[in-house]
Design brief:
By secondary structure, this protein is α/β, with parallel strands linked by helices. The protein folds into 2 domains: 6-64 and 110-357 and 506-535, 3-Layer(aba) Sandwich (Alkaline Phosphatase, subunit A), CATH 3.40.720.10; 379-441 and 443-481, Gyrase A, domain 2, CATH 3.30.1360. The protein has a 10-stranded mixed β-sheet with strand order 5-10-9-8-13-1-14-21-2-22, sandwiched between helices. It has a 4-stranded antiparallel β-sheet with strand order 16-17-19-18. Helix 12 packs parallel to helix 14 (320-343) and helix 16 (380-395) crosses helix 18 (426-438). The protein is globular and about 70 Å long. The relative contact order is 0.20.
Protein backbone atom coordinates (compact mmCIF):
# COMPACT_ATOMS: atom_id res chain seq x y z
CA UNK A 1 0.00 0.00 0.00
CA UNK A 2 1.27 3.47 -0.83
CA UNK A 3 1.95 5.57 2.28
CA UNK A 4 2.33 9.29 2.86
CA UNK A 5 5.73 10.37 4.13
CA UNK A 6 5.67 10.93 7.90
CA UNK A 7 6.46 14.65 7.63
CA UNK A 8 3.55 15.18 5.25
CA UNK A 9 1.19 13.40 7.65
CA UNK A 10 2.37 15.55 10.56
CA UNK A 11 1.91 18.66 8.44
CA UNK A 12 -1.66 17.70 7.60
CA UNK A 13 -2.46 17.03 11.24
CA UNK A 14 -1.14 20.46 12.14
CA UNK A 15 -3.63 22.24 9.85
CA UNK A 16 -7.13 21.30 11.06
CA UNK A 17 -8.48 24.85 10.89
CA UNK A 18 -7.58 25.30 7.24
CA UNK A 19 -9.21 21.97 6.42
CA UNK A 20 -12.45 23.05 8.13
CA UNK A 21 -12.51 26.38 6.24
CA UNK A 22 -12.24 24.94 2.76
CA UNK A 23 -15.28 25.61 0.53
CA UNK A 24 -17.46 22.57 -0.07
CA UNK A 25 -18.52 22.10 -3.71
CA UNK A 26 -22.21 22.09 -4.48
CA UNK A 27 -21.82 19.06 -6.70
CA UNK A 28 -19.34 16.22 -7.05
CA UNK A 29 -19.25 14.26 -10.30
CA UNK A 30 -17.46 10.93 -10.57
CA UNK A 31 -16.91 9.71 -14.13
CA UNK A 32 -15.78 6.13 -14.67
CA UNK A 33 -14.88 5.26 -18.25
CA UNK A 34 -15.07 1.50 -18.63
CA UNK A 35 -11.74 -0.03 -19.75
CA UNK A 36 -9.90 3.32 -20.02
CA UNK A 37 -6.18 2.68 -19.82
CA UNK A 38 -4.12 5.56 -18.43
CA UNK A 39 -1.92 5.67 -21.52
CA UNK A 40 -4.90 6.69 -23.68
CA UNK A 41 -4.66 10.19 -22.20
CA UNK A 42 -1.09 10.38 -23.51
CA UNK A 43 -1.57 8.56 -26.80
CA UNK A 44 -4.67 10.44 -27.95
CA UNK A 45 -4.00 13.80 -26.28
CA UNK A 46 -2.66 15.53 -29.42
CA UNK A 47 -6.00 14.87 -31.12
CA UNK A 48 -8.33 16.02 -28.34
CA UNK A 49 -10.13 19.35 -28.49
CA UNK A 50 -9.75 22.12 -25.90
CA UNK A 51 -12.80 21.60 -23.71
CA UNK A 52 -12.82 17.90 -22.79
CA UNK A 53 -9.96 15.70 -21.64
CA UNK A 54 -7.44 18.50 -22.26
CA UNK A 55 -9.38 20.86 -20.03
CA UNK A 56 -9.23 18.33 -17.19
CA UNK A 57 -5.54 17.58 -17.74
CA UNK A 58 -4.42 21.19 -18.07
CA UNK A 59 -6.61 22.63 -15.33
CA UNK A 60 -6.74 19.73 -12.91
CA UNK A 61 -4.61 17.40 -10.82
CA UNK A 62 -3.38 14.56 -13.00
CA UNK A 63 -2.17 11.53 -11.02
CA UNK A 64 -0.42 9.70 -13.83
CA UNK A 65 0.78 6.67 -11.87
CA UNK A 66 -2.54 5.39 -10.51
CA UNK A 67 -3.14 1.67 -10.10
CA UNK A 68 -5.64 -0.74 -8.61
CA UNK A 69 -4.24 -2.80 -5.76
CA UNK A 70 -6.44 -5.84 -6.39
CA UNK A 71 -5.80 -8.66 -8.87
CA UNK A 72 -9.22 -9.35 -10.38
CA UNK A 73 -9.49 -6.19 -12.45
CA UNK A 74 -13.01 -6.61 -13.75
CA UNK A 75 -15.81 -4.09 -14.12
CA UNK A 76 -17.90 -4.75 -11.02
CA UNK A 77 -15.00 -4.98 -8.53
CA UNK A 78 -13.56 -1.77 -9.96
CA UNK A 79 -16.80 0.17 -9.67
CA UNK A 80 -17.33 -1.20 -6.17
CA UNK A 81 -13.87 0.00 -5.10
CA UNK A 82 -13.89 3.51 -6.59
CA UNK A 83 -16.16 5.17 -4.03
CA UNK A 84 -15.77 2.75 -1.12
CA UNK A 85 -11.97 2.77 -0.95
CA UNK A 86 -11.92 -0.96 -0.18
CA UNK A 87 -11.43 -4.12 -2.19
CA UNK A 88 -13.48 -7.25 -2.73
CA UNK A 89 -12.13 -8.87 0.42
CA UNK A 90 -14.33 -6.31 2.20
CA UNK A 91 -17.05 -5.18 -0.24
CA UNK A 92 -17.67 -8.70 -1.53
CA UNK A 93 -18.00 -7.89 -5.25
CA UNK A 94 -15.46 -10.43 -6.51
CA UNK A 95 -16.33 -10.34 -10.24
CA UNK A 96 -19.05 -9.35 -12.69
CA UNK A 97 -20.70 -12.73 -12.15
CA UNK A 98 -19.77 -15.61 -9.91
CA UNK A 99 -20.87 -19.16 -9.16
CA UNK A 100 -22.78 -19.75 -5.93
CA UNK A 101 -20.75 -22.15 -3.80
CA UNK A 102 -23.79 -24.16 -2.71
CA UNK A 103 -25.91 -24.34 -5.87
CA UNK A 104 -23.18 -24.01 -8.53
CA UNK A 105 -25.50 -21.57 -10.33
CA UNK A 106 -24.01 -18.37 -11.72
CA UNK A 107 -25.42 -15.01 -10.66
CA UNK A 108 -24.81 -11.37 -11.57
CA UNK A 109 -22.97 -9.05 -9.19
CA UNK A 110 -26.02 -6.77 -8.87
CA UNK A 111 -28.72 -9.41 -9.38
CA UNK A 112 -31.62 -9.32 -6.93
CA UNK A 113 -34.82 -11.29 -7.55
CA UNK A 114 -36.58 -9.18 -4.94
CA UNK A 115 -36.00 -5.94 -6.89
CA UNK A 116 -37.68 -6.28 -10.30
CA UNK A 117 -36.79 -3.88 -13.08
CA UNK A 118 -38.91 -0.77 -13.48
CA UNK A 119 -39.57 0.82 -16.86
CA UNK A 120 -38.75 -2.05 -19.23
CA UNK A 121 -41.78 -3.09 -21.29
CA UNK A 122 -42.61 -6.81 -21.56
CA UNK A 123 -40.25 -8.51 -23.97
CA UNK A 124 -41.90 -10.29 -26.86
CA UNK A 125 -40.46 -12.93 -29.17
CA UNK A 126 -42.01 -11.63 -32.36
CA UNK A 127 -41.27 -14.83 -34.26
CA UNK A 128 -42.97 -17.07 -31.69
CA UNK A 129 -45.50 -14.37 -30.74
CA UNK A 130 -44.82 -15.08 -27.08
CA UNK A 131 -43.91 -12.99 -24.06
CA UNK A 132 -40.41 -13.70 -22.76
CA UNK A 133 -39.49 -14.00 -19.11
CA UNK A 134 -38.73 -10.69 -17.41
CA UNK A 135 -35.08 -9.79 -16.95
CA UNK A 136 -33.72 -10.43 -13.46
CA UNK A 137 -34.02 -7.67 -10.88
CA UNK A 138 -31.14 -5.47 -9.85
CA UNK A 139 -29.93 -3.78 -6.66
CA UNK A 140 -26.75 -3.12 -4.64
CA UNK A 141 -27.61 -5.77 -2.01
CA UNK A 142 -24.60 -7.94 -2.91
CA UNK A 143 -22.34 -4.97 -2.18
CA UNK A 144 -21.22 -5.11 1.45
CA UNK A 145 -19.32 -1.84 1.67
CA UNK A 146 -20.08 1.83 2.29
CA UNK A 147 -19.53 4.54 -0.30
CA UNK A 148 -18.88 8.27 -0.19
CA UNK A 149 -22.46 8.72 -1.36
CA UNK A 150 -23.67 6.75 1.65
CA UNK A 151 -21.63 9.01 3.94
CA UNK A 152 -23.08 12.06 2.24
CA UNK A 153 -26.59 10.79 2.91
CA UNK A 154 -25.67 9.94 6.50
CA UNK A 155 -24.58 13.52 7.17
CA UNK A 156 -27.22 15.50 5.28
CA UNK A 157 -30.11 13.06 4.84
CA UNK A 158 -32.55 13.84 2.05
CA UNK A 159 -31.01 17.30 1.58
CA UNK A 160 -28.03 15.65 -0.16
CA UNK A 161 -28.97 13.90 -3.39
CA UNK A 162 -27.05 10.95 -4.83
CA UNK A 163 -27.72 9.55 -8.30
CA UNK A 164 -25.98 7.16 -10.66
CA UNK A 165 -26.34 7.09 -14.45
CA UNK A 166 -24.63 4.59 -16.75
CA UNK A 167 -25.03 2.21 -19.62
CA UNK A 168 -24.26 -0.85 -17.45
CA UNK A 169 -26.37 -1.72 -14.42
CA UNK A 170 -23.35 -2.54 -12.24
CA UNK A 171 -21.74 0.79 -13.06
CA UNK A 172 -24.78 2.87 -12.11
CA UNK A 173 -25.61 0.80 -9.02
CA UNK A 174 -22.18 0.20 -7.47
CA UNK A 175 -20.85 3.72 -7.98
CA UNK A 176 -23.94 5.37 -6.53
CA UNK A 177 -23.98 3.10 -3.46
CA UNK A 178 -26.69 1.43 -1.37
CA UNK A 179 -28.16 4.70 -0.03
CA UNK A 180 -28.51 6.42 -3.40
CA UNK A 181 -31.71 8.24 -4.30
CA UNK A 182 -31.68 6.62 -7.71
CA UNK A 183 -29.72 4.67 -10.28
CA UNK A 184 -30.55 4.52 -13.99
CA UNK A 185 -29.02 2.29 -16.63
CA UNK A 186 -29.93 1.11 -20.11
CA UNK A 187 -31.83 -2.01 -21.08
CA UNK A 188 -32.76 -2.45 -24.74
CA UNK A 189 -31.98 1.14 -25.56
CA UNK A 190 -33.92 2.93 -22.78
CA UNK A 191 -33.15 3.88 -19.18
CA UNK A 192 -34.62 1.78 -16.41
CA UNK A 193 -34.25 1.32 -12.66
CA UNK A 194 -35.56 -1.23 -10.15
CA UNK A 195 -38.00 -1.38 -7.27
CA UNK A 196 -35.04 -1.13 -4.89
CA UNK A 197 -35.13 2.60 -5.68
CA UNK A 198 -38.75 3.34 -6.60
CA UNK A 199 -41.94 1.57 -7.72
CA UNK A 200 -42.21 3.36 -11.07
CA UNK A 201 -40.08 5.44 -13.41
CA UNK A 202 -40.38 9.18 -12.76
CA UNK A 203 -42.32 11.06 -15.40
CA UNK A 204 -39.19 12.87 -16.51
CA UNK A 205 -37.39 9.56 -17.24
CA UNK A 206 -40.38 8.30 -19.19
CA UNK A 207 -40.35 11.52 -21.20
CA UNK A 208 -36.61 11.19 -21.79
CA UNK A 209 -37.01 7.61 -23.02
CA UNK A 210 -39.74 8.65 -25.41
CA UNK A 211 -37.56 11.43 -26.82
CA UNK A 212 -34.02 9.98 -26.58
CA UNK A 213 -33.34 6.28 -27.04
CA UNK A 214 -31.18 3.91 -29.05
CA UNK A 215 -33.80 3.36 -31.77
CA UNK A 216 -33.29 6.90 -33.12
CA UNK A 217 -29.83 5.88 -34.34
CA UNK A 218 -31.07 3.02 -36.52
CA UNK A 219 -29.67 3.25 -40.01
CA UNK A 220 -26.83 5.63 -39.10
CA UNK A 221 -23.23 4.96 -40.05
CA UNK A 222 -20.30 5.28 -37.65
CA UNK A 223 -17.21 6.52 -39.45
CA UNK A 224 -13.97 8.12 -38.29
CA UNK A 225 -13.92 11.73 -37.17
CA UNK A 226 -10.51 12.26 -38.74
CA UNK A 227 -8.74 10.97 -41.82
CA UNK A 228 -8.01 7.25 -41.93
CA UNK A 229 -4.27 7.82 -42.37
CA UNK A 230 -4.07 9.41 -38.91
CA UNK A 231 -5.59 6.30 -37.31
CA UNK A 232 -3.22 4.10 -39.28
CA UNK A 233 -0.29 6.17 -37.99
CA UNK A 234 -1.38 6.15 -34.34
CA UNK A 235 -3.03 2.73 -34.03
CA UNK A 236 -1.83 0.62 -36.92
CA UNK A 237 -4.01 -0.91 -39.65
CA UNK A 238 -7.76 -1.32 -39.35
CA UNK A 239 -9.25 -4.82 -39.03
CA UNK A 240 -6.20 -6.37 -37.37
CA UNK A 241 -5.84 -10.10 -36.84
CA UNK A 242 -7.60 -11.26 -33.68
CA UNK A 243 -10.48 -8.75 -33.76
CA UNK A 244 -14.01 -10.10 -33.59
CA UNK A 245 -17.29 -9.22 -35.27
CA UNK A 246 -17.55 -6.42 -37.83
CA UNK A 247 -13.90 -5.42 -37.81
CA UNK A 248 -13.88 -2.43 -40.18
CA UNK A 249 -14.93 1.19 -40.03
CA UNK A 250 -17.28 2.54 -41.19
CA UNK A 251 -20.07 0.48 -39.60
CA UNK A 252 -23.78 0.85 -40.31
CA UNK A 253 -26.19 0.35 -37.45
CA UNK A 254 -29.01 -1.80 -38.79
CA UNK A 255 -32.61 -1.19 -37.77
CA UNK A 256 -34.01 -3.08 -34.76
CA UNK A 257 -36.76 -4.26 -37.10
CA UNK A 258 -34.26 -5.78 -39.53
CA UNK A 259 -33.77 -9.49 -40.23
CA UNK A 260 -31.30 -9.92 -37.35
CA UNK A 261 -33.83 -8.74 -34.79
CA UNK A 262 -33.66 -6.34 -31.85
CA UNK A 263 -31.13 -8.27 -29.76
CA UNK A 264 -28.44 -7.73 -32.40
CA UNK A 265 -29.37 -4.06 -32.78
CA UNK A 266 -28.98 -3.17 -29.11
CA UNK A 267 -25.71 -5.07 -28.83
CA UNK A 268 -24.41 -3.26 -31.90
CA UNK A 269 -25.60 0.08 -30.53
CA UNK A 270 -23.69 -0.53 -27.31
CA UNK A 271 -20.48 -0.58 -29.38
CA UNK A 272 -21.12 2.79 -31.04
CA UNK A 273 -20.04 6.16 -29.59
CA UNK A 274 -23.69 7.25 -29.67
CA UNK A 275 -24.12 5.11 -26.57
CA UNK A 276 -21.89 7.60 -24.70
CA UNK A 277 -23.93 10.51 -26.02
CA UNK A 278 -27.12 8.90 -24.72
CA UNK A 279 -25.59 8.42 -21.26
CA UNK A 280 -24.29 12.01 -21.18
CA UNK A 281 -27.70 13.37 -22.16
CA UNK A 282 -29.32 11.32 -19.39
CA UNK A 283 -26.77 12.64 -16.89
CA UNK A 284 -27.62 16.21 -17.89
CA UNK A 285 -31.33 15.51 -17.63
CA UNK A 286 -30.83 13.96 -14.18
CA UNK A 287 -29.01 17.08 -13.01
CA UNK A 288 -31.87 19.25 -14.21
CA UNK A 289 -34.79 17.12 -13.05
CA UNK A 290 -33.37 16.35 -9.62
CA UNK A 291 -31.99 19.88 -9.08
CA UNK A 292 -28.48 18.66 -8.34
CA UNK A 293 -25.93 21.27 -7.32
CA UNK A 294 -28.51 23.99 -6.80
CA UNK A 295 -27.93 24.72 -3.10
CA UNK A 296 -25.09 24.66 -0.58
CA UNK A 297 -25.72 21.07 0.47
CA UNK A 298 -23.40 18.95 -1.70
CA UNK A 299 -24.86 16.42 -4.12
CA UNK A 300 -23.20 13.52 -5.93
CA UNK A 301 -23.67 12.30 -9.49
CA UNK A 302 -21.83 9.25 -10.81
CA UNK A 303 -21.59 8.66 -14.55
CA UNK A 304 -20.44 5.44 -16.19
CA UNK A 305 -19.44 5.36 -19.86
CA UNK A 306 -19.29 1.70 -20.90
CA UNK A 307 -19.04 1.85 -24.70
CA UNK A 308 -15.21 1.93 -24.68
CA UNK A 309 -15.27 -1.44 -22.93
CA UNK A 310 -17.45 -2.97 -25.65
CA UNK A 311 -15.19 -1.83 -28.50
CA UNK A 312 -12.05 -2.58 -26.50
CA UNK A 313 -13.07 -6.19 -25.98
CA UNK A 314 -13.97 -6.68 -29.62
CA UNK A 315 -11.20 -4.80 -31.39
CA UNK A 316 -8.41 -4.26 -28.85
CA UNK A 317 -6.76 -1.10 -27.50
CA UNK A 318 -4.82 -0.48 -30.73
CA UNK A 319 -7.89 -0.41 -32.97
CA UNK A 320 -9.34 2.43 -35.03
CA UNK A 321 -12.61 1.92 -33.15
CA UNK A 322 -11.03 2.60 -29.76
CA UNK A 323 -9.23 5.73 -30.96
CA UNK A 324 -12.34 7.15 -32.60
CA UNK A 325 -14.42 6.34 -29.53
CA UNK A 326 -12.13 8.47 -27.36
CA UNK A 327 -11.98 11.33 -29.86
CA UNK A 328 -15.77 11.39 -29.86
CA UNK A 329 -16.03 10.92 -26.08
CA UNK A 330 -13.75 13.95 -25.76
CA UNK A 331 -16.36 16.07 -27.54
CA UNK A 332 -19.13 14.59 -25.43
CA UNK A 333 -17.16 15.36 -22.28
CA UNK A 334 -16.51 18.94 -23.40
CA UNK A 335 -20.24 19.54 -23.80
CA UNK A 336 -20.91 18.02 -20.39
CA UNK A 337 -18.28 20.17 -18.64
CA UNK A 338 -19.69 23.29 -20.27
CA UNK A 339 -23.13 22.26 -19.06
CA UNK A 340 -21.81 21.94 -15.48
CA UNK A 341 -20.43 25.47 -15.68
CA UNK A 342 -23.73 26.83 -16.90
CA UNK A 343 -25.96 24.80 -14.60
CA UNK A 344 -23.99 24.66 -11.33
CA UNK A 345 -21.46 27.44 -11.83
CA UNK A 346 -17.74 27.36 -12.57
CA UNK A 347 -15.82 26.77 -9.37
CA UNK A 348 -18.85 25.29 -7.60
CA UNK A 349 -18.39 21.68 -8.75
CA UNK A 350 -15.64 19.09 -8.52
CA UNK A 351 -15.08 16.17 -10.86
CA UNK A 352 -12.86 13.11 -10.83
CA UNK A 353 -12.19 10.97 -13.89
CA UNK A 354 -11.09 7.36 -13.50
CA UNK A 355 -11.73 3.85 -14.83
CA UNK A 356 -12.66 0.43 -13.52
CA UNK A 357 -9.74 -1.35 -15.22
CA UNK A 358 -7.50 -1.34 -18.29
CA UNK A 359 -7.13 -3.99 -20.98
CA UNK A 360 -4.58 -6.28 -22.61
CA UNK A 361 -3.50 -5.89 -26.24
CA UNK A 362 -4.55 -8.46 -28.78
CA UNK A 363 -2.19 -11.44 -28.51
CA UNK A 364 -1.85 -11.51 -32.29
CA UNK A 365 -0.35 -8.01 -32.22
CA UNK A 366 2.31 -9.14 -29.75
CA UNK A 367 3.01 -12.27 -31.80
CA UNK A 368 3.91 -10.05 -34.72
CA UNK A 369 6.20 -7.87 -32.56
CA UNK A 370 7.76 -10.28 -30.08
CA UNK A 371 7.03 -13.84 -31.16
CA UNK A 372 4.40 -16.38 -30.17
CA UNK A 373 5.80 -17.02 -26.69
CA UNK A 374 5.10 -13.40 -25.71
CA UNK A 375 1.31 -13.80 -25.64
CA UNK A 376 -1.38 -16.34 -26.26
CA UNK A 377 -4.93 -17.60 -26.04
CA UNK A 378 -5.66 -20.22 -23.41
CA UNK A 379 -8.29 -22.82 -24.22
CA UNK A 380 -10.55 -23.05 -21.21
CA UNK A 381 -11.74 -26.58 -21.99
CA UNK A 382 -8.16 -27.85 -22.15
CA UNK A 383 -7.43 -26.20 -18.81
CA UNK A 384 -10.52 -27.84 -17.31
CA UNK A 385 -9.45 -31.21 -18.72
CA UNK A 386 -5.99 -30.84 -17.18
CA UNK A 387 -7.48 -30.12 -13.76
CA UNK A 388 -9.90 -33.06 -14.01
CA UNK A 389 -7.12 -35.40 -15.15
CA UNK A 390 -4.93 -34.39 -12.21
CA UNK A 391 -7.74 -35.06 -9.74
CA UNK A 392 -8.56 -38.40 -11.40
CA UNK A 393 -4.90 -39.42 -11.25
CA UNK A 394 -4.58 -38.43 -7.60
CA UNK A 395 -7.82 -39.85 -6.23
CA UNK A 396 -9.38 -42.02 -8.92
CA UNK A 397 -12.18 -41.16 -11.37
CA UNK A 398 -15.63 -40.20 -10.10
CA UNK A 399 -18.81 -42.10 -10.96
CA UNK A 400 -21.40 -40.24 -13.04
CA UNK A 401 -23.01 -37.79 -12.48
CA UNK A 402 -20.44 -36.49 -9.97
CA UNK A 403 -17.91 -33.89 -11.13
CA UNK A 404 -14.73 -32.65 -9.50
CA UNK A 405 -14.83 -28.90 -9.95
CA UNK A 406 -16.34 -25.92 -11.74
CA UNK A 407 -14.26 -23.12 -13.25
CA UNK A 408 -15.49 -19.70 -12.16
CA UNK A 409 -13.67 -16.75 -13.71
CA UNK A 410 -9.97 -17.44 -12.93
CA UNK A 411 -10.63 -20.03 -10.26
CA UNK A 412 -12.02 -23.47 -9.48
CA UNK A 413 -14.71 -24.44 -7.00
CA UNK A 414 -14.32 -27.99 -5.73
CA UNK A 415 -17.52 -30.01 -5.55
CA UNK A 416 -18.20 -30.90 -1.88
CA UNK A 417 -20.11 -34.05 -2.96
CA UNK A 418 -17.10 -35.26 -4.92
CA UNK A 419 -14.80 -34.65 -1.97
CA UNK A 420 -17.22 -36.49 0.33
CA UNK A 421 -17.43 -39.43 -2.07
CA UNK A 422 -13.65 -39.79 -1.92
CA UNK A 423 -13.46 -38.90 1.79
CA UNK A 424 -11.12 -36.02 1.01
CA UNK A 425 -10.56 -32.82 2.98
CA UNK A 426 -10.85 -29.72 0.74
CA UNK A 427 -7.18 -28.82 1.25
CA UNK A 428 -6.00 -32.01 -0.44
CA UNK A 429 -8.15 -31.45 -3.49
CA UNK A 430 -7.12 -27.79 -3.67
CA UNK A 431 -3.44 -28.72 -3.53
CA UNK A 432 -3.84 -31.04 -6.53
CA UNK A 433 -5.68 -28.37 -8.52
CA UNK A 434 -3.03 -25.79 -7.62
CA UNK A 435 -0.21 -28.08 -8.76
CA UNK A 436 -2.00 -28.85 -12.03
CA UNK A 437 -2.50 -25.17 -12.76
CA UNK A 438 1.06 -24.23 -11.88
CA UNK A 439 2.23 -26.95 -14.26
CA UNK A 440 0.36 -25.39 -17.16
CA UNK A 441 2.77 -23.45 -19.41
CA UNK A 442 0.40 -20.48 -19.77
CA UNK A 443 -0.46 -20.08 -16.07
CA UNK A 444 1.83 -17.90 -13.94
CA UNK A 445 0.74 -19.00 -10.47
CA UNK A 446 -2.16 -20.24 -8.34
CA UNK A 447 -3.27 -19.82 -4.73
CA UNK A 448 -5.48 -21.96 -2.52
CA UNK A 449 -8.22 -20.88 -0.16
CA UNK A 450 -5.97 -21.77 2.79
CA UNK A 451 -3.24 -19.47 1.51
CA UNK A 452 -5.56 -16.59 0.70
CA UNK A 453 -7.39 -16.70 4.02
CA UNK A 454 -4.27 -17.31 6.09
CA UNK A 455 -2.06 -14.79 7.85
CA UNK A 456 1.23 -15.73 6.20
CA UNK A 457 2.51 -13.08 3.76
CA UNK A 458 2.28 -13.89 0.06
CA UNK A 459 4.24 -12.55 -2.90
CA UNK A 460 3.10 -9.30 -4.55
CA UNK A 461 0.59 -10.98 -6.88
CA UNK A 462 -0.62 -13.13 -4.01
CA UNK A 463 -1.37 -10.07 -1.88
CA UNK A 464 -3.27 -8.50 -4.77
CA UNK A 465 -5.20 -11.74 -5.18
CA UNK A 466 -5.94 -11.76 -1.45
CA UNK A 467 -7.56 -8.32 -1.80
CA UNK A 468 -9.84 -9.81 -4.47
CA UNK A 469 -10.82 -12.77 -2.30
CA UNK A 470 -14.07 -12.99 -0.34
CA UNK A 471 -14.25 -16.48 1.22
CA UNK A 472 -18.04 -16.89 1.15
CA UNK A 473 -18.11 -16.25 -2.62
CA UNK A 474 -14.64 -16.96 -4.01
CA UNK A 475 -13.34 -20.22 -5.45
CA UNK A 476 -11.16 -22.79 -3.68
CA UNK A 477 -8.23 -22.14 -5.99
CA UNK A 478 -7.51 -18.90 -7.87
CA UNK A 479 -5.02 -18.74 -10.71
CA UNK A 480 -3.26 -15.96 -12.59
CA UNK A 481 -2.42 -16.27 -16.27
CA UNK A 482 0.97 -15.29 -17.61
CA UNK A 483 1.13 -11.68 -18.83
CA UNK A 484 -0.69 -11.21 -22.14
CA UNK A 485 -2.26 -14.70 -22.05
CA UNK A 486 -6.06 -14.69 -22.24
CA UNK A 487 -8.89 -17.18 -21.90
CA UNK A 488 -10.71 -15.81 -24.92
CA UNK A 489 -11.09 -17.02 -28.51
CA UNK A 490 -11.06 -13.60 -30.22
CA UNK A 491 -10.76 -10.00 -29.12
CA UNK A 492 -9.20 -9.24 -25.77
CA UNK A 493 -10.05 -8.89 -22.10
CA UNK A 494 -8.88 -7.80 -18.65
CA UNK A 495 -8.89 -9.17 -15.11
CA UNK A 496 -5.21 -9.59 -14.30
CA UNK A 497 -2.85 -7.95 -11.76
CA UNK A 498 -0.57 -6.65 -14.52
CA UNK A 499 0.04 -3.00 -15.34
CA UNK A 500 -2.01 -2.98 -18.54
CA UNK A 501 -5.07 -3.91 -16.43
CA UNK A 502 -4.35 -2.01 -13.20
CA UNK A 503 -3.05 1.32 -14.57
CA UNK A 504 -5.95 3.76 -14.97
CA UNK A 505 -6.43 7.55 -14.93
CA UNK A 506 -7.18 9.56 -11.83
CA UNK A 507 -7.70 13.19 -12.77
CA UNK A 508 -9.29 15.72 -10.43
CA UNK A 509 -10.75 19.05 -11.55
CA UNK A 510 -12.70 21.90 -10.02
CA UNK A 511 -13.48 23.17 -6.54
CA UNK A 512 -10.73 22.43 -4.01
CA UNK A 513 -8.33 21.00 -6.60
CA UNK A 514 -4.90 22.54 -7.23
CA UNK A 515 -3.76 21.96 -10.82
CA UNK A 516 -0.61 19.94 -11.34
CA UNK A 517 0.94 16.77 -12.69
CA UNK A 518 1.81 14.08 -10.14
CA UNK A 519 4.11 11.16 -10.93
CA UNK A 520 4.15 9.45 -7.55
CA UNK A 521 2.40 6.13 -7.15
CA UNK A 522 -1.21 6.42 -5.99
CA UNK A 523 -4.10 3.98 -5.83
CA UNK A 524 -7.70 4.03 -6.97
CA UNK A 525 -8.39 3.26 -3.31
CA UNK A 526 -7.20 6.82 -2.57
CA UNK A 527 -10.10 8.33 -4.50
CA UNK A 528 -12.81 7.78 -1.87
CA UNK A 529 -10.86 9.32 1.05
CA UNK A 530 -10.00 12.33 -1.11
CA UNK A 531 -13.57 12.93 -2.25
CA UNK A 532 -14.91 12.42 1.28
CA UNK A 533 -12.56 15.14 2.50
CA UNK A 534 -13.55 17.53 -0.30
CA UNK A 535 -17.22 17.01 0.57
CA UNK A 536 -16.64 17.34 4.31
CA UNK A 537 -17.97 13.90 5.21
CA UNK A 538 -16.54 10.96 7.12
CA UNK A 539 -14.44 8.35 5.40
CA UNK A 540 -16.18 5.15 4.36
CA UNK A 541 -15.39 2.64 7.12
CA UNK A 542 -12.38 0.39 6.52
CA UNK A 543 -11.21 2.55 3.59
CA UNK A 544 -7.53 1.77 3.09
CA UNK A 545 -6.48 4.66 0.89
CA UNK A 546 -5.11 8.10 1.73
CA UNK A 547 -6.12 11.65 0.98
CA UNK A 548 -4.25 12.88 -2.09
CA UNK A 549 -4.45 16.63 -1.45
Amino acid sequence: MFKLPRLVVLGLLALPLQAEEKPVPRLAVVIAVDQMRADYLVKFRPYFGAGGFKRLLEGGADFQNCHYQHAVTKTAPGHATILSGVNANIHGIIANEWVDRTTFMQGNSVEDVDSPLVGLPPRVDRYANATLAAKAGRSPRNFLGTTVGDRLKARYGAAAKVFGVADKDRSAILLAGPKADGAYWTEEGIFVTSTYYRPALPAWVQEFNARRNAAEYAGRTWDRLREKELYDHVQGPDAAEGEEGDTRLPKRLLSPDGPLGSASFYGDFDRTPWNNDLVADMARRTLEAEQLGQDDIPDLLTVGFSQPDAVGHAYGPDSHEVMDSYLRLDRTLAQFLAFLDARVGAGRWVLVLTADHGVAPLPERLWAEKGEDAAGRIKGRELDAQVKSALDDAFGPLPDPLFWAVRDNSGYHLNPRALAAKNLPPDRGAAVVQAALQGHPQIATAYTRTQLTGAAPLDAIGEMTRRSYYPARSADVLFVERPFFLIRVLGTTHGSPYDYDTHVPQVWFGAGVKPGVHSEGVAVEDLAPTLAWLLGVELPPEAKGRRLF
